[in-house]
Amino acid sequence: MTVTALIVAAGSGSRMGGEVPKQYRALGGKSVLAHAVDALAGHPRIDSVRVVIGEGQQDEAARALTGRDVGSLLIGGAERADSVRAGLDAVTSDVILIHDAARPFCPPDVIDRLLDALADHEGAVPVLAIADTVASGVGTLDQMVDRTRLLRVQTPQAFHREDLMYAIEETRGRKYTDESSALVAAGLKVAAVEGSSMLDKLTTAEDWRRAETTLAASLI
Ligand code: CTP
Ligand code: MG
After folding, report:
1. Closest CA relative to residue 57, chosen from 93, 8, 129
2. Residue 33 and residue 105: Cα distance in Å, rounded?
3. How many whole angstroms separate alpha carbon 181 and alpha carbon 171?
4. Is any ligand 1 atom within 6 A of the Cβ of residue 104?
5. Which ligand is nearest to the CA of 204?
6. Cα–Cα nearest to 166, from 124, 122, 120
């Protein structure tokens, strides 16, 4: 069984702000993208890592990836799902891990849990429970939501290649924020394995400050 990790890094990082998209900026002396690549490339069960970047991001990406073997850089599209699709054309492994470049820290045991779960599922994702009270409403509370059955879904997400391609084809034209949504919509089985707060996505400037603090604390 061959395993390839596909890291999507073609976004513009608009919510984070700054001159350079967040995935190409240095966090603790190393780019966010390089952190993500190193975490996956260093895992013994992952055979190769490929990276999808945005049109016009070649120079920033090459600088951010100095010294890393990720083959030729793949060019993504306008939405995350377009970037994933563009990247999948270049991947022929039996199993594919799709990962956000904006999640720089990936504990190796999460990858083991994902790959183990593929023995009896078409896909597997890392999840975390929700600690806060959950409600719907704008400005005022409309309805309280039972959080006990809700899960926060992270990446990397693992799939058997054939099942992923089937789900994408079946759900063509529908909008999803990740590929596990496409599998579930296509009626396939996606395992929920224990995720990690280390995998939380860097979305805003506050997330960036928290990541810097985490990194500094881990170096002490
Ligand atoms: N991504 C991508 N192609 C896109 C949009 C997003 O490859 N067209 C990637 C991002 O680079 C990121 C991941 O998908 O690694 C998760 O997306 P998000 O956190 O939303 O990043 P951005 O889209 O860059 O940020 P924003 O939505 O704030 O502009
Ligand atoms: Mg985005």
Report:
1. 8
2. 10
3. 10
4. no
5. 1
6. 122
ipTM of the assembly?
0.99
Q: Which ligand is nearest to the CA of 202?
A: 1
With a 6 Å cutoff on the Cβ, whether 52 touches ligand 1 is yes
> Which of 6, 7, 12 is the pocket-test mutation for ligand 1 (most atoms within 8 Å of CB)?
12
Ligand 1 neighbourhood includes 8 CB (under 6 angstroms): yes
* Spatial CA neighbour of 79 closest among 145, 22, 11: 11
- Looking at the chain, list the stretches that DSSP marks H as alpha helix, in order from N- to C-terminal side: 32-41, 58-64, 80-88, 108-117, 161-170, 179-185, 205-219
Instruction: Report the distance separating Cα 156 and Cα 145, nearest Å.
Output: 27
- DSSP structural state of residue 24: G
Alpha helices of 89-190 — where are they, by DSSP H?
A: 108-117, 161-170, 179-185
- Give 165-215 pLDDT, tens digit per residue: 999 999 999 999 999 999 999 999 999 999 999 999 999 999 999 999 988
Q: Which atom of ligand 1 is nearest to the CA of 52?
A: 7
- List the domains of the chain with CATH numbers: 3-219 (3.90.550.10)
Q: Is the CB of 15 under 6 A from ligand 1?
A: yes
| pTM, rounded to two decimals | 0.97
Task: Find out whether the beta carbon of 100 lies less than 6 Å from any atom of ligand 1.
Answer: yes
